[in-house]
């Protein structure tokens, strides 16, 4: 076990040793980077022990393992989180201060590993940490993208993307495992040899493992995140080269270079690109070959696989796991098809993360059959088999329809459990996404409400509040988050409320300073910090937020002497590079900010800031300093949300619709501590039936009319007055996400926020109650539930 009583002297000696012998640097010449590396290696050394111990125990006790397959792991920075979980955060700070180094500067020197787009990838990272905390033997499998999610800049208020480069510096947390490499085949043809099918690939790449240990709370357990890098199988095709075919000779290298080069940055619309399918198969095949090798090293009967192996598919991205596992069992291990099917299903679980039809993966059978010819056959056989087994199956249901392979149906049919990510979402998965399959397989669809790790999102990101919590209820809440309820008696007293407010203010002052430096806007820490941070998407309705902000500005200008509560509206988030409507919303927010921030009439009463390049590290800065959490998606569209949970934990009440996990947040925190507004999912469906819904809503709302009028007149785009004509037209006539229909309700709810904030004691009570009742949203609770309901795994701790 890890020595948690480790004295600063030992850590100091190790940092000095790594600086000299690993980095080859002399202290006087060492840069922040060198110090960061030295500290990272010294901390990493302390993870290796529990990591080995965990692995050894899993082998010795022949435990079942979880394999979490995900195209995305949105990890963020690792160093500070590792020190927190090892109980070395303050010791590390002290040691570095002894070297004359600023701990914060070292922490911020680490690039933010952005191997994901948003919620789905960040959830995978929180799950890895919770599995380690609970002692659930687990491997995360993903792709070691050379470039994570693009960096975002604003030019003239518009988003510009530049490549992200997290691997340009050495990455101290990973261990390359060139000995763990697998050949990944693509294309070619299927041949029948002795009555058995066999796939002869047309091209191959090598998947090379890179392992990062993931340590849990208090260093009691550590699991492995195994990311695959693509390498050419033949460094160079000498035969082709000698024939003079120089371009073709370099092909294997070119394929390998592109395969793990870059994360797909569009999580909104599925595009059907061959390279994406290849990435998905690359991850999945490498993972499954690795899983089978590990299993076979100690077991001989492959039919026992489900007793020892649970494979979770994070959305449909690795859904090729079904047919690939069947192929490996049948073609390479001689199992009968029906047995292979049953064995595969016993292992597989499928998590759905979206109902948006444009994000559901479907591959043209042409592309699918070309890249994965053997899998095309297997998919058709699975589909036929499923039809035969369920002869009531309606004709329009199936995996292959209209010359497309539907990955949702494939994942559903190949999984023993299918889950949604919030109570509401799981009901909608049953009712709207898979109604027929749900009827054929009752009980297969279950709910697993998302969660977030309180170690990163509370203990690490919000030190003032974490300290107050510990001072009030003692230690141990970090891995028993329900204990936050013990704060409730204290919240009744003014003293605790003021302490809660003081902790929040420390964070707000720090954020104000950062905003001043980063965005050049002066904001007062006494203003209400109102924050919407997430990917920019029409359904998330950043547009509703900025329209309401304009209405507020207009109202203040009409009556500047009234008793306004000063507000800072904070936006953060990236648009998919090809998503024109989302980019237009970004442009509008920045244009509106430019006008409002320089208006002497409204002055400090209203400011808008939109720091570029929102990422995990920025979230860690913003959320603890937030007063109000904007969760305003069109009801029925946000599967769960996880940012909403982070805000709640950090004492920011929600203004939100009855969507995703907001429903459960409201239930936990109580209506008196939540600003609810807007149409319900059911009302949304009904309202859409009226083709004139937006016109009617606008005509009924003087405030919204004024706002749209100002935008249309070019008040926020004086150099190009017609810039937003298209946008305004769409609000009037093609308002699919019901911005207009919910505007007045949102505006009124914002008024309620002002009232509550003006009553300081009331507000502090609401904020503190949000923290006290956030225990349910720990990802430890989520993972325990997956272990019980899907994986059938007992925690080792
Ligand atoms: C979709 C696609 C479509 C095709 C190409 C690339 C790509 C990459 C990512 C995605 C994921 C979209 C689904 C997603 O991120 N869902 C979010 O999952 C969160 C965790 O469950 C949940 O909290 C959010 O509400 C949900 O939007």
Structure overview:
- With about 800 residues, the protein is an alpha/beta fold.
- The chain has three domains: about 1-60 and about 85-110, no CATH class; about 60-75 and about 110-450, Glycogen Phosphorylase B (Rossmann fold), CATH 3.40.50; about 455-775, Glycogen Phosphorylase B (Rossmann fold, 3-Layer(aba) Sandwich), CATH 3.40.50.
- Helix content is about 50%, strand content about 15%.
- Strands 7-10-11-4-1-12-13-17-18 form a nine-stranded mixed sheet.
- Helix 26 (about 645-650) links the parallel strand 22 (about 630) and strand 23 (about 655).
- Helix 14 (about 365-370) packs across helix 15 (about 375-390).
- It is globular and about 90 Å long.
- Bound molecules: ligand 26V.
- The site of ligand 26V has 22 residues, from helix 6.
- Ligand 26V binds next to helix 6.
- This is Alpha-1,4 glucan phosphorylase.
- One of its GO terms (biological process) is glycogen catabolic process.
- Its EC number is 2.4.1.1.
- Keywords: Allosteric enzyme, Carbohydrate metabolism, Glycosyltransferase, Pyridoxal phosphate, Transferase.
SSE arrangement:
Layout: H1 8-22, H2 32-60, E1 65-69, E2 73-76, H3 79-86, H4 89-98, H5 103-109, E3 113-115, H6 119-134, E4 138-143, E5 151-155, E6 158-162, E7 175-186, E8 189-193, E9 196-200, E10 203-215, E11 222-232, H7 238-242, H8 246-249, H9 251-259, H10 274-296, H11 305-308, E12 309-314, H12 321-331, H13 337-347, E13 348-351, E14 362-364, H14 365-371, H15 373-389, E15 400-401, E16 404-406, H16 407-414, E17 417-420, H17 423-433, H18 435-440, E18 445-447, H19 454-460, H20 463-473, H21 488-491, H22 494-519, E19 528-533, H23 542-558, E20 567-572, H24 580-596, E21 606-609, H25 616-622, E22 628-631, H26 643-649, E23 654-656, H27 662-669, E24 675-676, H28 681-688, H29 693-699, H30 702-713, H31 725-733, H32 739-758, H33 760-772, H34 779-791
Parallel strand pairs: 1-4, 1-12, 4-11, 12-13, 13-17, 17-18, 19-20, 19-22, 20-21, 22-23, 23-24
Antiparallel strand pairs: 2-3, 5-6, 7-10, 8-9, 10-11, 14-16, 15-16
Helix pairs in contact: 1-2, 1-4, 2-3, 2-5, 3-19, 6-34, 10-12, 12-13, 12-15, 14-15, 22-33, 23-24, 23-30, 23-32, 29-32
């Amino acid at each position: 076990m890890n020595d948690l009583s480790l004295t600063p002297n030992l850590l100091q000696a190790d940092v000095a040793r790594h600086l000299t012998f690993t980095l080859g640097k002399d202290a006087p010449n060492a840069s922040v980077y060198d110090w960061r590396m030295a500290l990272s290696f010294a901390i990493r050394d302390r993870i290796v022990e529990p990591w080995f111990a965990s692995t050894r125990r899993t082998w010795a006790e022949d435990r079942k393992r979880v394999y979490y397959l995900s195209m995305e792991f949105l990890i963020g920075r690792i160093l500070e989180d590792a020190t927190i979980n090892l109980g070395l955060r303050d010791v590390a700070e002290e040691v570095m201060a002894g070297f004359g180094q600023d701990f914060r500067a070292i922490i911020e020197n680490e690039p933010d590993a952005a191997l994901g787009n948003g919620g789905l990838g960040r959830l995978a990272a929180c799950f890895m940490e919770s599995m380690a905390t609970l002692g659930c033997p687990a491997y995360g499998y993903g792709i070691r993208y050379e470039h994570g999610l693009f960096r975002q800049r604003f030019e003239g208020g518009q988003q510009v993307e530049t490549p992200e480069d997290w691997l340009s510096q050495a990455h101290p947390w990973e261990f390359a495992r060139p000995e763990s490499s697998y050949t990944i085949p693509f294309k070619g043809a299927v041949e029948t040899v002795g009555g058995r099918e066999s796939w002869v690939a047309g091209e191959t790449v090598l998947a090379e493992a890179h392992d990062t240990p993931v340590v849990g709370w208090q260093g009691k357990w550590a699991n492995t995140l195994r990311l695959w890098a693509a390498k050419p199988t033949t460094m160079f095709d000498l035969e082709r080269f000698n024939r003079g075919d120089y371009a073709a000779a370099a092909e294997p290298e070119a394929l390998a270079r592109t395969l793990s080069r870059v994360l797909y940055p569009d999580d909104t619309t599925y595009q059907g690109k061959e390279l994406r399918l290849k990435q998905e198969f690359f991850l999945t095949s490498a993972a499954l070959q690795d899983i089978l090798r590990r299993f076979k090293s100690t077991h001989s009967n492959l039919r026992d696989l489900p007793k020892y192996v649970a494979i979770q598919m994070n959305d449909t991205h690795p859904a090729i796991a079904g047919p690939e596992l069947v192929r490996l069992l049948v073609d390479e291990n001689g199992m009968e098809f029906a047995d292979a099917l049953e064995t595969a299903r016993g292992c597989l679980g499928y998590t759905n993360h979206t109902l948006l039809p444009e994000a559901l993966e479907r591959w043209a059978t042409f592309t699918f059959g070309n890249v994965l010819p053997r899998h095309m056959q297997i998919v058709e056989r699975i589909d036929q088999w499923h039809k035969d087994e369920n002869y009531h199956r309606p004709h329009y249901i199936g995996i292959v329809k209209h010359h497309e392979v539907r990955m949702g149906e494939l994942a559903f049919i190949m999984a023993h459990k299918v889950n949604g990510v919030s109570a509401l979402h799981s009901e909608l998965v049953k009712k709207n996404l898979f109604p027929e399959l749900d009827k054929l397989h009752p009980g297969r669809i279950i709910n697993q409400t998302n969660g977030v790790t309180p170690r990163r999102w509370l203990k690490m990101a919000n030190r003032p509040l974490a300290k107050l919590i510990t001072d009030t209820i003692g230690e141990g809440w970090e891995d028993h988050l329900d204990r936050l309820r013990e704060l409730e008696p204290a919240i009744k007293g003014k003293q605790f409320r003021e302490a809660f407010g003081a902790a929040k203010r420390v964070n707000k002052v720090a954020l104000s300073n950062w905003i001043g430096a980063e965005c050049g806007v002066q904001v007062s820490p006494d203003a209400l910090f109102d924050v919407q941070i997430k990917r920019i998407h029409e359904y998330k309705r950043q547009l509703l937020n900025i329209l309401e902000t304009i209405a507020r500005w207009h109202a203040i200008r009409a009556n500047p002497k009234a008793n306004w509560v000063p507000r800072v509206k904070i936006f953060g988030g990236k648009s998919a590079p090809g998503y024109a409507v989302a980019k237009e919303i970004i442009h509008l927010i920045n244009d509106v900010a430019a006008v409002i921030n320089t208006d002497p009439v409204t002055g400090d009463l209203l400011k808008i800031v939109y720091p570029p390049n929102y990422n995990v590290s920025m979230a860690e800065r913003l959320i603890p300093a937030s007063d109000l959490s904007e969760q305003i998606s069109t009801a029925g569209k946000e599967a769960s949300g996880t940012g909403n949970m982070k805000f709640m934990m950090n004492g920011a009440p929600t203004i939100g619709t009855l969507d995703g996990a907001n429903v459960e947040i409201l239930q936990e925190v109580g209506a008196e501590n939540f600003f609810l507004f807007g149409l319900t999912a059911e009302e949304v469906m009904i309202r859409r039936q009226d083709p004139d819904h937006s016109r009617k809503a606008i005509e009924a709302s003087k405030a919204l009319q004024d706002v749209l009028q100002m935008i249309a007149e070019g008040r926020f785009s004086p150099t190009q007055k017609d810039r937003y004509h298209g946008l305004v037209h769409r609000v009037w006539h093609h308002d699919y996400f019901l911005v207009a229909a919910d505007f007045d309700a949102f505006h009124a709810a914002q008024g309620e926020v002002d009232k509550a904030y003006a009553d300081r004691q009331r507000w502090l009570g609401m904020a503190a109650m949000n923290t006290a009742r956030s225990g349910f949203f720990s990802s430890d609770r989520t993972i325990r539930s997956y272990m019980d309901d899907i994986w059938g795994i007992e925690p080792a701790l």
